[in-house]
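Structure (tokenized):
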């Protein structure tokens, strides 16, 4: 039997190699060996990867494989593989193809009947999930949300009643807006966790209900820096058989600030079409817990 990862044909092998997401000690011994052994490394950004490889004393030649060229340049890597030489695919950090280039290349190589071998290692979403304390038996990865508010809210609406744990990547300059929209769509009490700068000096894992997490990030601009993953607990059906949506809650909360509870519940029911007595009960609970 051929050992996993060993090529048993005249063609080479494409190795998909994970690299550290911050802490260089997370580079695996197997990744180092493969990166040193292959004929060519296909890298998302060769200038970035050359520093990583230099750090580990690896001199394998690099070629660019990024989102703008991977469809067209696939042929170049295929030629090498067909000639019996192996290639390693790496991205700037973490696991290639996970919100990173590589999908088109892997498809092309597999379609050509050439072996593709994963060399697993760091991945921000898995690292965050492994330490979040949120249900990890079932989860969905949503990648990056749209940058603009309308698109972001609409994507969040699509997963509002998703029961599995939700995982998102987000850019630091959008983290606050992202949490504000999550609070609006998922409701203030949904458990969430911000995993920032994983494996690095300022690593922070902060688990709080969404409204508190948003306030925490709003109050401290340091929390709006660095790389981050946001995890949100999946939806659980309310105990009452009448679910009250986050949008209805938002209307009710706004009205509660302006008028007595009974009037607010009645007006919110008129505006949203939700049942008045249900909103009244919800408003009562809201007042008790505030
Ligand atoms: N391929 C990578 C992986 O396996 O996680 C992800 C690449 S994607 C372009 C970059 C995003 O991943 C960042 O914007 C952030 O959301 C997340 N990320 C990467 N490194 C991280 C880290 N050290 N801590 C927290 N999030 C990280």
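Design, position by position:
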């Amino acid at each position: 039997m051929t050992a996993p990862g060993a090529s048993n044909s005249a063609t080479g092998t494409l190795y998909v190699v994970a690299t550290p997401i911050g802490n260089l000690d997370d580079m695996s011994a197997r990744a180092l060996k493969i990166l040193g052994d292959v004929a060519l490394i296909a890298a998302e950004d060769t200038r970035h990867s050359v520093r990583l490889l230099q750090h580990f004393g690896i001199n394998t030649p690099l070629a660019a494989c990024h989102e703008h060229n991977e469809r067209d340049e696939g042929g170049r890597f295929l030629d090498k593989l067909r000639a019996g030489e192996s290639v390693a695919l790496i991205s700037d950090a973490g696991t290639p193809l996970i919100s990173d280039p590589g999908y088109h290349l892997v498809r092309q190589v597999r379609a050509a009947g050439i072996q593709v071998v994963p060399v697993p290692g760091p991945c921000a979403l898995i690292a965050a999930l492994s330490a979040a304390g949120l249900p990890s038996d079932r989860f969905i990865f949503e990648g990056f949300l749209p940058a603009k508010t309308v698109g972001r809210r609409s994507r969040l609406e699509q997963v509002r009643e998703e029961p599995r744990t939700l995982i998102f990547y987000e850019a630091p300059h959008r983290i606050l807006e992202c949490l504000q929209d999550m609070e609006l769509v998922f409701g203030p009490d949904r458990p969430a966790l911000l995993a920032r700068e994983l494996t690095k000096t300022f690593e922070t894992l902060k688990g709080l209900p969404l409204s508190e997490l948003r306030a925490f990030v709003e109050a401290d601009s340091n929390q709006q820096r660095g790389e981050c993953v946001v995890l949100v607990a999946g939806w659980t059906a309310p105990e009452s058989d009448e679910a009250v949506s986050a949008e209805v809650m938002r209307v009710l909360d706004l009205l509660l600030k302006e008028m007595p509870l009974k009037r607010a519940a009645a007006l919110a029911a008129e505006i949203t079409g939700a049942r008045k007595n249900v909103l009244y009960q919800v408003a009562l609970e809201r007042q008790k817990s505030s």
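Reviewer-requested clarification: The chain has three domains: 14-122, 125-232, 246-289. Residues 21-22, 91, 93-95, 98-100, 123-125, 169-171, 195-200, 227-229 surround S-adenosylmethionine (CB under 6 Å).
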